[in-house]
Amino acid sequence: MYKDETKMLLKAEELADVQKAHSNVVGEFLEPQRRPANVVGMGVGVKWKSGRPTGEPALVVLVTHKVPKDQLSESDLVPLKLQDMQTDVLAIGYPFAGGSEPPETGTRTLAGRVRPAKGGYSVGHYKITAGTLGTCVYDILPEDSNSPSGQGIGVPSKYYILSNNHVLANSNDASIGDPILQPGPYDGGVDPADRIAALSRFIPITFYPPVPREQHNNLVDAAIAEGQFHDLDREIYWIGHVRGWRKKADVNVGTLIKKTGRTTNFTTGRITAVNATVDVGYGDGKVARFKDQIVTTGFSDGGDSGSLVTTLDNVAVGLLFAGSSSATILNQIENVRSLLRVEVAEQIL
């Protein structure tokens, strides 16, 4: 174990204190007329000094890149404290989600056609390039279903592909019932030969323009598409089956994570901030501000959008939707599950 491993984690009471400070200050700090240069968001994490984690809670100010203090105006300096909570600065590049062609990198194991399709393979709306199939999910069954346990466990009537809005619903610009191709169009998918599902529902994303960023309440970039049981496999390539999912209150900084994605295949990373409010680019000048996000080290690239992210022991924590060369951004899986009303795994772990 890395000797500073425990200093990357926050205790429950420390997390509560810094979460409170974050909620009190984030809106004002990110106002356009007050936001320091290069700032793209703010989250919750630990303070780092001399390249090592201290274990102390901190408000993590997310910037595109760091600039020496002597080259910044006084108004662009990040205060040492906000709401009596110390700050730290984390460079994450400029987070981006979709809007461009996936890079031609690595061995394209997951860019081909496969049936049944597992999590990690190429997929996409017929008008986009390509993203990643996260996993197969199904509707949350009602509590009054014919379940011996009374917890909604039973036989699902429909099965869906889980991925991003910008992968399955073309960033809001799609209609329910539109064809979803596997592999995605960029990887040779054509309609109708490679049609695997039909768009079922998506959570609309609020964009600037026209809506000012301070009015955004985006939580997820997520969508599902209904397919046939025999065409979908709940296993994730190179990872296996998901054992359960984690509530966002239990997702902690410092946690090691993994994913399988269309472009970079199997990779691992570490959570660097939670409860992050962050501005994400979508191309053509469109920006969406997301709240309650997970920030991680960089372990993805274009085309990995839609990957399901788990702990090392296969507990789902997030849905990958954006990133840069130095960071990756995830939606909390609890938010994805509750807003889309789908089950990723029965157990809460």
TrEMBL record:
InterPro entries: Peptidase_S1_PA (IPR009003), Peptidase_S1_PA_chymotrypsin (IPR043504). It comes from the Bacteria. This is Trypsin-like peptidase domain-containing protein. It holds the Pfam family Trypsin_2.
